[in-house]
Amino acid sequence: MDKVIKYVDENLEKFIEELKDYIRIPSISTLPENKNDMITCAKFVEANLKSIGIKTTKIIKTDGHPLVYGEWLQAKDKPTVLVYGHYDVQPIDPIELWDTDPFEPVVKDGKIWARGADDDKGQSFVHIKAVEAYLKTKKELPVNVKFLFEGEEEIGSSSLETFLKSKEGKDLLKCEAILISDTSLYGEGIPTITYGLRGLAYLEVELTGPNRDLHSGSFGGAIANPINELAKMIAKLHDENGTITIPNFYDEVPEVTKQEKENFEALKFNDKKFAKEYKVAELSGEKGFSTLERLWTRPTLDCNGIFGGFTGEGAKTVLPSKATAKISMRLVPNQDPKKVAKIFTKYIKTLTPKSCKIKVTEMHGGNPVVVPLDDKAIVAASEAVSKSFGKKTVYTREGGSIPIVVEFVKQLKSPAVLMGLGLDTDNIHSPNEHFSLKSFERGILSSIYFLDNYSK
Ligand code: BES
Ligand code: MN
Ligand code: MN
Question: Does pTM top 0.70 for this prediction?
Fold first, then answer.
């Protein structure tokens, strides 16, 4: 083991340089103009797997962005771990708020700054480097390892879902545990295993008033303004207690158990510190629940964007023809994103005034997940992160979503180990994304210890 650890120590600079090259590829999955970058990025991941000694690799074409696969299966009678990560990243706008070029990584203050530094290039790369450390020193791994990197996580993972449901996919990805680093630590330096993620239902609501933009003086007061009306409709989606008003919305939402309430309390979440970090005067949300309960166990509804009319500089007196809102709901077990999208659509239609027409479009979604903590793989992971960070492991749920996790668990009938390494303050999906190099190193060691623990 010492040799393996020593290799990490001696090669950390090299690993960081490779990560920088990986980050330089602008693999924004949602933008059509980056389609070729997605291919370049997939090839980069495959080449890196080859360079560490993974001989069997392939790029799997899909209707969307390619999947990258690699395997090392020479550990006889040992379990197989599937390492999953995503090589796609979110768009970089608003670009003017970045202190440095989003695709030219900079190392500063012990962190690497760039789009994808945390989510998920930096986090997922640790497992490739952990395997490298084994293969370059011991020429073998303690367990069998399969790698699967996708390029559509940020847009709903539909190609991977299709692949996973096919016989080919299920056979290829067969494993005893799925290892994922794409979540957060509970705090800096705190070893964390996450056992729950929220799901997601995402919709677009378009409201049309008059058939064309009108002069707001000649027509304002006589013809409905779709922006005004849409704002009223959105406001009605919550009551004064912060509860969502969609009928039957909470039907499947389980009560927080006493045990879980106690576990959350033991985490000593600091509301004041949290509010201060994000410069808000106070926290808000559904009445009657603690902050961690609201973030991890309760569903939410948020307007992610709203547009229409005149949004440029200066002033234009216009009564717009259209208004659009992007609305998403974070879901908890056992809510079904498709069903939630249906009841949302039905309800928002009833809120529409006669003066406007409504069009609702369902976008991507994802299922919520909670995994049992007593699985052998999760115990091995918990001990591994504790050893690497030198502290007792804490168990968290998360407010974010990784839609494919449920599909993995369902199709492969294996537990998902969520060994997150990011921090909530890393600015993922936001300007100035960064990732701690200390977490990067600890992550590599965690992965090394995990593979070893899990083989026993
Ligand atoms: N890595 C995140 C999910 C995440 C972030 C989980 C922080 C826990 C803590 C992932 O890349 C992500 O952004 N997921 C999307 C999914 C959506 C686009 C379907 C999300 O949660 O918004
Ligand atoms: Mn991610
Ligand atoms: Mn993301």
Answer: yes
